[in-house]
Amino acid sequence: MKKFKITVDGKEYHVEVEEVREESAPRVQRPVAPEPAPAQAAPVPAPTPQAGRPQAPAGGGSLTAPMPGTVLKILVKVGDKVEHGQPLVVLEAMKMENNINAPAAGTVTSIAVSEGQSVDTGQLLLTIE
Predict the structure, then answer these.
(1) How far is the C-alpha of 41 from the C-alpha of 64, rounded, in Å?
(2) Per-residue pLDDT tens over the stretch 26-83
(3) Burial of 119 by CB count in 10 Å (0-12 exposed, 13-18 middle, 19+ buried)?
(4) Fewer beta carbons under 10 A from the terminal one: N or C of the chain?
């Protein structure tokens, strides 16, 4: 029997895993109660580019929806300059808010969706040049 500590969304769980072979009968284990999570620290700001580190490529092209959902917020306007990894659109999928980030640095040249619109996987959200 091996014991593991797993953290999911800041909650810590202790689990025991047993390798079961055909000749052994399965054992029923009582679940271990999760330990209270420690107080969350303040968010760490995104690292800033440093000299000698490769920069993200400019001109990301098309940004498409990675999953079906509803556009909750559009965080940029046409003409805005964006950095690699910057959140551009908030997409709600399966009752979760997902930030859709810039794949590269550039300028937003067009926005193909509006807030409240439903989108499918692969649908164009906006264009970055």
Answers:
(1) 33
(2) 555 566 666 666 666 556 665 555 444 444 445 568 899 999 999 999 999 999 999 9
(3) buried
(4) N
| Residue that is written with structure tokens 């284990």 in the block | 29
Q: Name beta bridge partners: 34.
A: none
Distance CA 3, CA 15 (A): 6
Closest CA to 58 of 80, 83, 87, 86: 83
How would DSSP label each residue in 31-97? Answer: PPPPBPPPPPPPPPPPPPP-TTSPPPPB--EEEE-SSSEEEEEE---TT-EE-TT-EEEEEEETTEE
Q: Which residue has the tokens 């679940």?
A: 31
CA-nearest of 5, 4, 32 to 18 is 4
pTM above 0.85, yes or no: no
